[in-house]
Design brief:
alpha/beta, 10 helices, elongated, 2 domains, 60s Ribosomal Protein L30, Chain: A, binds S-adenosylmethionine
Length: 270
């Protein structure tokens, strides 16, 4: 039997739409344990990686394609629902012009610190107190590109599932396991960490290019305003600084993280 045409939601007062729009706030995301992902390519990536898509939202002009069918099947097979909305309503949900024609409500995932293993050659990244969601998303994108095993978010770090962070991650949010720890939890967990810990510090003497290949690495990056707190810096086996011209203040956190991840990936043999 042919499928009947979808019912098109036109009103922002519709309960489904209200729930979707509340994902713009941290409160809404925590209550629903979900986040918004925009764009067909990113939604299909999430489906392929086994993430649960609770709602797939299509604008009237979304058309049809094999990728779209894959997204629809992925959503429905996980018990999710497919909604169709007007193009105008899609713009309101995404809160920007030129909204994507596909977006999804995806269930959040958090891993526990027991996931972190000190296997040789593997890199884990720990970020302390990141404030800027754009920085965090860019860092997740770099972490994914450099094959980082997972990211520890330490202390009071901005929500990686905020729409701005998810956008800046360009889909990488579904490829990088995330672990949350407060500072005390990190310090306790770190006592059992068997790899090496490399921290970044603007007053460090060490240079990233002197790192040698081999051990599992935990790379620690500090907060945008104040850098790594002393207690966390004290857990490091090595503190390094990316050389800058004399008088330069510092690098942007996301830029520094990308350079450090490259330096760790390109380490010299011992
Ligand atoms: N005023 C802060 C301080 O004194 O540490 C600046 C923090 S900086 C904007 C934020 C983070 O980016 C730092 O904690 C460090 O992880 C990283 N970072 C920035 N510039 C760096 C550099 N030249 N070498 C290594 N890490 C750097």
């Amino acid at each position: 039997m042919p499928e009947s045409p979808p019912i098109v939601i036109r009103s922002a007062a519709n309960d489904e739409i209200k729930a979707l729009r509340s994902l713009d706030s941290k409160k809404g995301r925590v209550e629903q344990n979900a986040f918004l992902s925009e764009g067909l390519r990113h939604v299909v990536e999430a489906v392929r990686r086994g993430w649960r898509v609770r709602r797939l939202v299509l604008s009237e002009s979304a058309g049809t394609s094999p990728l779209l069918r894959e997204a629809v099947e992925g959503c429905r097979s996980g018990g999710g629902r497919v909604l169709t909305v007007t193009d105008e309503l899609m713009t309101r949900i995404a809160r920007r012009d030129n909204a994507q024609s596909v977006l999804a409500v995806i269930e959040q995932r958090w891993a526990g610190p027991d996931l972190v293993r000190a296997e040789p050659g593997i890199t884990w990244l720990a970020l302390e107190g990141v404030r800027d969601p754009g920085n965090l998303g860019s860092i997740l994108r770099s972490a994914d590109a450099f094959g980082v095993a997972g990211v520890l978010l330490v202390g009071n770090t901005v929500d990686p599932y905020s729409t701005e962070a998810v956008r800046a991650s360009m889909g990488s949010i579904v490829n990088v396991p995330l672990i949350r720890l407060d500072e005390a939890g990190f310090l306790e967990w770190h006592r059992g960490w068997r790899g090496r810990t490399v921290g970044t510090h603007l007053r460090a003497e060490g240079r990233p290019e002197t790192l040698v290949r081999g051990p599992a690495t935990l790379l620690l990056m500090g907060n945008e305003q104040s850098g790594l707190p002393e207690a966390i810096a004290a857990t490091c086996d090595a503190l390094v600084r990316i050389p800058m011209r004399k008088g330069a203040d510092s690098l942007n956190l996301a830029a520094a993280t990308a350079i450090m991840l490259y330096a760790v990936a390109a380490q010299a043999d011992a």
